[in-house]
Write a structure and sequence with these properties.
single chain; 8 helices; 5 strands; Nucleotidyltransferase, domain 5; alpha/beta; metal-binding; RNase_HII/HIII
Length: about 200
């Protein structure tokens, strides 16, 4: 049975660090188009929205409802992006770190430490503790996964209006048959990650 996220990790880190702890997660490392996003959240342990979980197991409607609750009830939250140009310049790993740094810096309260999903210790403006599978274990990371996902999805819908024909509003820039067909017919737009091997191969083919 899949574990339910709790504040156990946050509590341990608050006790050891003596200050506020945020959860950090990203969205959009894998798509063929659009920026990578990240969010940081400091939850109030006595005012938690019900149903916070890994964004991947929630419906879009549930994520959007929880986004409102998290933003209204969290101690602090922040969202950051790294653009397609920054992904090309830095590579996706370091661009993800840049988005995470921007999310932490956007918090209204400076955290002493951050719980970060995954096993890579990004350089952030506070202590970092990595948590593999963190979005399914930590409520703060799960909340961050929701905000990162909803923020990026909303931006991809806006990009769909700017660059019609690619279907960004439906597949959010990920690999999909309709996306592949649009690339063959229209070629890449400025929001495509042209350096990525699948796009190069598709265009060259």
């Amino acid at each position: 049975m899949r574990p339910i996220p709790t504040l156990a990790l946050e509590t341990l880190l608050v006790d050891s660090s003596g200050g506020p702890v945020c959860g950090v997660d990203e969205a959009g490392r894998g798509p063929w188009a659009g920026p990578v996003s990240a969010a940081a959240v400091i939850l109030h342990p006595e005012d938690l929205p019900e149903g916070i979980d890994d964004s991947k197991v929630l419906t879009a409607e549930r994520r959007e409802a929880l986004e409102i609750e998290i933003k209204a009830r969290a101690v602090a939250w922040g969202v950051g992006f790294a653009s397609v140009d920054e992904i090309a310049e830095l590579n996706i790993l370091h661009a993800t770190g840049l988005a995470m740094c921007r999310a932490v810096e956007a918090l209204s309260i400076t955290p002493v430490a951050a719980l970060v999903d995954g096993n890579y210790r990004f350089k952030l403006p506070c202590e970092v503790q990595t948590v593999v599978g963190g979005d399914g274990l930590s409520l703060s990371i799960a909340a961050a996964s929701i905000l990162a996902k909803t923020a990026r999805d909303r931006l991809m819908i806006e990009l769909d209006a700017l660059y019609p024909g690619y279907g960004f509003a439906s597949h959010k820039g990920y690999n999909a048959p309709a996306h592949q067909q649009a690339l063959r017919e229209l070629g890449p737009c400025p929001e495509h990650r042209r350096a990525w091997a699948p796009i190069r191969a598709l265009l060259e083919g």
